[in-house]
Write a structure and sequence with these properties.
- The complex is a heterodimer of chains A (623) and B (338).
- With 623 residues, chain A is of the alpha/beta class.
- Among the domains of chain A are: 168 residues, 3-Layer(aba) Sandwich (Rossmann fold); 251 residues, Rossmann fold (3-Layer(aba) Sandwich), CATH 3.40.50.300.
- Helices cover 34% and strands 24% of the residues of chain A.
- Chain A is globular.
- With 338 residues, chain B is mostly helical.
- Chain B has 13 helices and no strands.
- The chains are: A alpha/beta (623), B mainly alpha (338).
- At the A-B interface, helix 2 and helix 4 of A face helix 10 and helix 11 of B.
């Protein structure tokens, strides 16, 4: 169906062409699913774009061919390839919400696609659209056709896009991280849907993902990429259970486990070489970060070795891979008992949304939440988007005023919102925001950002702030020179470190962290989780860790609160809650996570959960 | 659609009343600071001081200023703007015949500016990244830096004087008479079936409209270009390509509709400036609109006219802004009430 032979893509940089993809070989049989796995910058998406020959400007295929049904996509004239796109080859994007045109109704967009596929007249096309929506399990199709994309949830948009992709019964589907932007329960159902459609039409699928566990569950074969070069390729189950390449093994170990005892994480040092660095590396591209690298690795590009039937790896020390392991995590300071540092009682937040001239709706984002946080304790809050996690965090930090309830921090009720309460709160609670890109002022240097809390006091001079900034930077594992840089000069992981350092500046007792590792690569995530564990020992502070990723919460937190539609539906020690969940919602969340164990069928056939949208803004319970 | 626009128009109307009141007060009080005595001006130069005093009392000029304002305001609300000191005619009639002329000029200029702006914007977008880009870019900046009165003078010199293709004074050929009706010449001529008048009026409009339109088009071009560039970064454009749509169809169906929204809100602001810009152009082309009336009134310190024209400018700009905002609401589904 699709055969890549010796494919290479190069980018024209100022100092010459740099290979972005090289030595790419694979063949995808009809009806099979190939997983492309790797971290950002590995070249996964570039392969997807190479299939459509819609590479970014300056990038071009320099060698090899990409055969689709025996025709070379690379050297095919534009018109001919355009004929194939959307008809024989379909795509499902990463960001469903931005994948649909905001000013056209869903119906118009489906109709446009069907018209291109030359499906009858307008009435036939409408009937066909309704059938399509039904096939992707979207109810009330007729109503949906008249809606605009912003009126739908991400999961619904993705279903619409999947319906469009399968409209022509394509031979090949390229799904580029189709579930990354979605909640876990939705992810499970979207994956299920793609599998269902794919089986029905006998479509071959290229499934691009950063999640090795997910790929192992749903793909037939896996191709692991590192810096644009295949590291390992083989049957999915085998690659997952007996990885031959050290990078695959490290990826696996850098992800926290969902079952068994709490094990340490493998935090790969540094990061993947960028475009400009690629040229300077002589031997194996992974060698600088590889735990089992020897001198010979740095001298020549490793050849592909066949480990088993159809399982190959580009490594000269395959036998050493199985030995890579991580030590058990150092014991953390045990949480203190006694009077809690933070006690929240009956906390609620309602929003009023305008509706016409005089009327308004009242929407409860958080409803009667009570919990405590002890000294030295890490508490996780999990739930899907719209469950009220972030609103809760904002109230704790004083960014939103509670509608009801009390917040007692270190013995003082701060819910009255007076300026003295706020000063007390600021001394004890600091927040780390989700997106360091927008949380750090791009016009300020790192030193100024991390010591902003001191600037607010007005009593500390610049010399002292600079010294403090350097001390903080060394604490979070960054060189002192970084103090003079701007956020744009840092990598994503470094930015998140700076973001954490900023919160630590006033030595708060409580850190409120809102999804601070989501959207980062697993190796960077492991580095940050390590940092948090280390800080926990060194600094002795408490943390409320909000995340939709259950495995991270399981690794990091002593206790967990499960939130659903603004309420805490279950709480308790993390290991216990995850091992024996009581509330159906907790069970559903856990079932939606791809498990480590490949023998169980996943995704489960019956996922009886409704999404938990924040009512009001979105009356859009996903199908 | 009506349900969407109605609350906006309602709010705007309330705000407009307030704005008009403030502007009227400003106009009234500021103009009274001028060393002008309407009483003396409305009498022959031979009048005695006593006669002038009597006139002042009769006109109410001895009353305190706020009182005078309230009297003027109540008369204005009844539709009585007073009579012109210089022309000795009813102000409402003068403004009523000049306002349609200016609106006609401004609307046609806006059409010219929009057509040129959209074509120019598409061209600027089309040549992006090519060797033509700096040249076209330079051209648009050149257009941007020439003001409307310079265009007017160029056009008069080239098309009026040198080539003698088009007339450049007034609204009609001298042998034609203005038809009765709304005051919108083009509309009246069509209603009366007088195509000769329509043709003559159009010929008179060409130069002033292009002078104004060309001067205002480059901003539209540049905003359209940059919003098109933004839109082409969006995922749905990429996905449309992956669905095999042609570039032309992507531009027409997907990109332009999104890129036009920022351009539209700019055009609303632009129209306000353009309406003010008619003043100079009207004077240059001796076009009998609000601008010329205003200049005459200022020259003669004709307070009632200045007040009325000032209010008329303000009202027109408010109306245009409301229309553009309503249009924005209709075109942007995200702002619509579900």
């Amino acid at each position: 169906m699709l055969i890549a032979s010796d494919l290479a893509v190069s980018a024209a940089l100022a100092n010459g062409a740099v290979p972005v993809i090289q030595d790419l070989n694979f063949s995808l049989a009809p009806g099979r699913v190939l997983g492309l796995v790797g971290e950002s910058g590995a070249g996964k998406s570039m392969i997807g774009r190479a299939v459509a020959q819609l590479l970014p400007s300056g990038f071009s295929v320099t060698r090899g061919e990409l055969l689709f049904d025996g025709q070379d996509l690379v050297r095919m004239p534009l018109d001919k390839r355009r004929e194939l796109l959307g008809r024989e080859i379909a795509f499902v994007p990463q960001e469903p919400l931005s994948g649909l045109n905001p000013v056209l109704t869903v119906g118009r967009q489906i109709d446009e696609h069907l018209a291109r596929l030359a499906v009858g007249d307008a009435r036939t096309r409408r009937a066909r659209a309704l059938v399509m929506l039904d096939a992707v399990h979207l109810p009330r199709g007729a109503e949906l056709l008249g809606k605009y994309p912003h009126q739908l949830s991400g999961g619904m948009c993705q279903r619409v896009l999947i319906a469009m992709a399968f409209a022509s019964r394509p031979k090949l589907l390229v799904a580029d991280e189709p579930t990354t932007a979605l909640d876990v329960t939705i992810q499970a159902r979207i994956v299920q849907l793609i599998a269902e459609m794919q089986r029905h039409d006998g479509t071959s699928v290229i499934f691009i993902t950063h999640d090795l566990r997910l790929a192992a569950q749903i793909c037939d074969d896996i191709l692991v990429l590192y810096a644009g070069r295949p590291a390992e390729r083989g049957p999915a189950r085998r690659v997952f259970s007996q990885p031959a390449h050290p990078y695959t093994r490290c990826l696996q170990l850098s992800n926290p486990a969902m079952s068994g005892p709490r094990r340490g994480l493998y935090a790969l040092p540094e990061r993947m070489p960028g475009l400009s660095a690629l040229k300077t590396i002589q031997g194996c591209l992974f060698a600088p970060r590889c735990p089992s690298a020897v001198g010979a690795c740095a001298r020549a590009l490793p050849p592909f070795t066949e480990v088993d039937d159809g399982h190959i790896a580009a490594c000269i020390r395959i036998t050493a891979t199985a030995e890579i392991s991580v030590p058990a995590p150092a014991a953390a300071n045990a949480p203190k008992t006694g009077t809690p540092l933070l006690a929240v009682e009956g906390l609620s937040k309602t929003f009023r949304t305008a509706r016409g001239f005089f009327r308004h709706d009242v929407v409860a984002a958080v409803r009667g939440v009570s919990f405590t946080l002890h000294e030295n304790e890490f508490v996780g809050i999990v739930g899907e988007s719209g469950s009220g996690k972030s609103t809760l965090a904002r109230m704790l930090c004083g960014l939103d005023a509670p509608s009801q309830g009390t917040i007692v921090i270190a013995g003082r009720d701060v819910s009255d919102g007076s300026s003295r309460s706020n000063a007390h709160r600021r001394a004890h609670v600091q927040m780390v925001f989700q997106d360091p890109q927008s949380a750090l002022n791009p016009r300020r240097r790192v030193a100024s950002i991390v010591t902003q809390a001191l600037e607010a006091t007005g009593k500390v001079d610049w010399e002292e702030r600079l010294a403090r900034a350097k001390a903080l930077l060394s604490e979070i594992g960054m060189p002192p020179e970084a103090a003079q840089r701007f956020p744009a000069q840092l990598s994503g992981g470094q930015r998140q470190r700076v973001n954490i350092a900023r919160a630590l500046c006033v030595a708060p007792n409580i850190l409120v962290a809102d999804e601070i590792v989501s959207g980062l690569d697993v190796s960077v995530q492991a580095q940050l989780l390590d940092l948090l564990m280390w800080l926990r020992r060194a600094r002795a502070f408490s943390m409320l860790f909000i995340s939709h990723d259950l495995s991270v919460v399981r690794y990091l937190c002593d206790r967990v609160l499960v939130m659903y539609r603004g309420e805490v539906v279950e709480s308790g020690p993390t290991i216990q809650v995850f091992a024996t969940p009581r509330h159906p919602y907790t069970r559903a969340l856990l079932a939606a996570m791809p498990p480590d164990d490949l023998s169980a069928a996943w995704p489960p056939q019956s996922l009886e959960i409704e999404a938990a949208p924040l009512a009001g803004k979105a009356v859009e319970a996903d199908a | 659609m009506i349900a969407t626009v109605f609350p906006l128009v309602g709010r705007r109307l309330l705000a407009s009343v307030l704005i008009l009141l403030i502007v009227s007060a400003l106009l009234f009080f500021v103009l009274h600071v001028l060393p002008v005595d309407p009483a003396a001006m409305s009498l022959p130069p031979s009048a005695t001081i006593a006669e002038i005093e009597a006139m002042r009392r009769e006109m109410g000029l001895d009353l305190p200023l706020p009182r005078q304002y309230l009297i003027w305001l109540s008369q204005v609300l009844q539709g009585d703007f007073g009579s012109s000191i210089h022309f000795r005619r009813d102000v409402l009639g003068l403004v009523g015949s000049a306002l349609p002329a200016t609106i006609e000029l401004a609307l046609l200029s806006m059409i010219v500016a929009t057509v040129l702006g959209i074509f120019g914007g598409l061209m600027l977008f089309h040549v992006r990244g090519s060797r033509m880009e700096p040249i076209v870019d330079f051209g648009s900046i050149l257009l941007l830096s020439i003001p409307e009165f310079l265009w007017s003078l160029f056009f008069i010199l080239i098309f009026g004087v040198a080539l003698q293709w088009l007339p450049f004074t007034g609204r009609l050929d001298p042998d034609l008479r203005l038809p009765q009706g709304t005051g919108f010449l083009l509309v009246d001529a069509l209603v009366a079936g007088r195509f000769d008048i329509f043709w003559s009026a159009m010929r008179h409009m060409v130069l002033p409209c292009f002078a104004l339109g060309i001067a205002f088009s480059p901003t539209i071009m540049r905003v359209l270009r940059s919003s098109l560039l933004d839109v082409y970064q969006e995922d749905y454009i990429h996905l449309a390509r992956l669905r095999g749509l042609s570039e032309w169809r992507i531009l027409r169906r997907h990109a332009l509709k999104n890129a036009i929204l920022p351009t539209l809100s700019l055009m609303g602001v632009q129209f306000g400036f353009l309406f003010g810009g008619t003043l100079l152009v009207e004077v240059i082309f001796s076009y009998p609109g609000l601008g010329n009336l205003m200049v005459d009134a200022v020259r003669n310190a004709d307070l009632p006219i200045i007040q009325a024209v000032g209010l008329a400018y303000c009202a027109v700009v408010l109306v245009i802004n409301t229309v553009v905002d309503s249009l924005y609401l209709v075109l942007n589904p995200k702002l619509r009430i579900r």
